[in-house]
Write a structure and sequence with these properties.
2 copies of one chain form a homodimer.
Chain A (H helix, E strand, L loop, with lengths): L3 H4 L16 E10 L12 H17 L7 E4 L5 H9 L5 H4 L6 E4 L5 E5 L5 E8 L3 H18 L4 E2 L3 E2 L11 E8 L1 H5 L3 H10 L2 E4 L12 E6 L7 H29 L1 H17 L5 H16 L7 H11 L2 H8 L5 H15 L9 H11 L1
Antiparallel strand pairs in A: 1-5, 1-8, 2-3, 3-4, 4-5, 6-7, 8-10, 9-10
Helix pairs in contact in A: 3-12, 9-10, 10-11, 12-13
Chain lengths: 367, 367
């Protein structure tokens, strides 16, 4: 089935929800695997890459989790379609640029995606809304175990799974969460948080990974080490850090409310105002304001139900998503107009911010 | 009666209205006069300035237009009170900085104000809402004629009225209008307009005169020449230029609507949004947005009744006005919060922008 059919419905994780969904947007687990006897994709000629695809395809079709999944050679996808998959975190930017002999397989809920011949022969991912790292890991581990019975994985008894880049050697595991941290950002604690995370072997990055900005106060936290620890321990370590970060973020929000109530009300008020009434909205501005609306939902300034809408919009207002919605290529100016329309349409039922709840919340905390 | 009593009610011109009030905010006439036998205020010692005040005061009290007027030595006014008068265009910034021997007289409607010992012994002004240059001139001319029967004006048969600065010599007349020109500004025609005005002996300045920015798209147009022409001819010349400027501004608005409808809707939408929902608003931002709301009133996007409120707010949100309203000195941060509150309170009844009228208006024009 063509991947195009997937693009008009949002991925499961984009809808929001899941545990700790006020701060944790999504949880991702990625496993890197390679086939014994084949060069890594970066070294392989087109024919060898094609052989790897031919080898992997029947194994994937055979396992129940991926039955009825959507599979496609990268060359069959348009630039726009590939960009939509990148915006949904289903494929990497690097994979989107790949040519013949590279493929992608995605299940119907878009919770499992498998890139074939990205940096490794197999890059498998599970992505779920909220803090569900362990659930995502178990789901992906199941897929991995079933594939392992069907494919000759490159595995070394001392090193573990062999990968193209030594930073993935061992478990081939990257666990990451996308966190919404406006409290830490507004109280100027992000630099400190990032340095702290780095010291304990974690990386903090922007919304779209390395080298991207932390727009919308979204930060990705992931493990750096893949070697010398069990998968469950790597994940448990990350989970403990996330718990601490959630506490810090919640405290930071209270502190910001305490010290800068007018500033918070101003930013939330403006976010609501601009998203409801502007007619030209850039991606960056939309993300900034959506972040504040989401914070407003957490602070009882808006109904909690709005949080899901906002979470979906964070991806739906990205350039490729807009063009898929419009079924046509759009200039930047046209996108900015359509973005404003789509946001207005989605936020139509959202009532103006009501700051009485915010203050009550703060008073209760102080008792 | 103390001028303090005047400050809590807006000046007549601040309420808006009058002919051509969609574009012309106010019309001002100023006459410069001096008494024979006294040095100009800048050269006069304190005692001589006091003598001039003593000489002028009974004459002013004697004429019916200024009976019951509010008079005060500048030293009796607080810095804040003086600043309010500056923001209302009732005294000059220079006069606000003056010490002993300087005074100001203002009538109840605040349509007539007379500075004593500013640059000249007498600087008289009439200010009215809308395009009422000739009406303002006639009112001020009446005051001037009555004073002339009571005071020994310095007058030369060849040069006319003698003034401290030669640029005021002759009629001592400065006629000016405050125009709201968002159309010319948004269509990048202001530089050209200002150069054109300069060529025909007019000056175009920002809201608070020389060296001030044209915030809120407000521009002051005034005559440069005071010598060699009759008062009525100077005013008639300015009036003809204003008529042309009004036509240009109206055409520019249609053109901007034609070429940049989304941009106009965006700016008006954002102006509404921010003024309704922001909690911290600087003076500059408030003026920018109020200008767009005013344009929206002219374009049937908002009810026309809102124009008066917006016009009054243009002055009411200035720093000194805010502090007079609050009856206390406020920091910049406090002013920004109070400004947002006052604007919200005043725009409470304003319904969201309705852009259907705009398009209809444009379609009618094209028929």
């Amino acid at each position: 089935m063509r991947i195009t059919n997937l693009l008009n419905k949002p991925a499961e994780w984009m809808q929001g929800g899941g545990p700790e969904s006020d701060i944790v947007i999504s949880s991702r687990i990625r496993l890197a695997r390679n086939l014994r006897g084949y060069p890594f994709p970066g070294w392989a000629k087109k024919e060898l890459r094609a052989q790897v695809v031919s080898c992997i395809r029947p194994a994937l079709e055979d396992i129940p989790e991926m039955s009825g999944a959507f599979a496609e050679e990268m060359t069959q996808l348009s630039a726009l379609e590939k960009q939509v998959l990148v915006e949904r975190h289903l494929i990497s930017r690097e994979h989107a640029a790949k040519g013949p002999g590279c493929a992608v397989v995605i299940n119907d809920q878009q919770s499992l995606s498998i890139m074939v011949n990205e940096e490794d022969h197999l890059r498998m991912q599970a992505i779920l809304p909220g803090q569900q790292l362990m659930t995502a890991y178990r789901a992906l581990d199941q897929v991995d175990s079933e594939l392992e019975t069907r494919l000759p994985y490159a595995f070394d008894p001392d090193y573990g799974y062999l990968t193209c880049c030594p930073t993935n050697l061992g478990t081939g595991l990257r666990a990451s969460v996308m966190l919404h941290l406006p409290g830490l950002f507004l109280s100027d604690q992000m630099t400190q948080t990032m340095q702290g995370a780095s010291k304990i072997g974690l990386a903090v990055r922007g919304q779209y990974g390395e080298g991207t900005d932390a727009l919308a106060n979204l930060f990705q936290i992931s493990n750096q080490n893949t070697l010398g620890a069990k998968e469950e321990d790597i994940i448990a370590h990350l989970e403990r850090v996330i718990e601490q970060l959630l506490r810090n973020e919640k405290n930071a929000r209270l502190k910001v409310l305490e010290d800068h109530a007018a500033m918070i009300q101003d930013q939330i008020g403006r976010a609501y105002a601009v998203l409801k009434y502007a007619h030209i909205v850039s991606s960056k501005e939309a993300l900034t304001h959506l972040s504040m609306i989401r914070l407003g939902c957490d602070m009882n300034v808006f109904p909690t139900e709005a949080r899901g809408i906002v979470t979906r919009l964070l991806t739906a207002i990205q350039p490729a998503h807009l063009q898929i919605t419009a079924s046509t290529k759009l200039s930047m100016e046209e996108r900015d107009v359509l973005r404003a329309e789509i946001i207005q349409e989605n936020l139509k039922a959202l009532t103006p911010p009501d700051f009485r709840g915010i203050i009550q919340h703060r008073d209760n905390e102080n008792e």
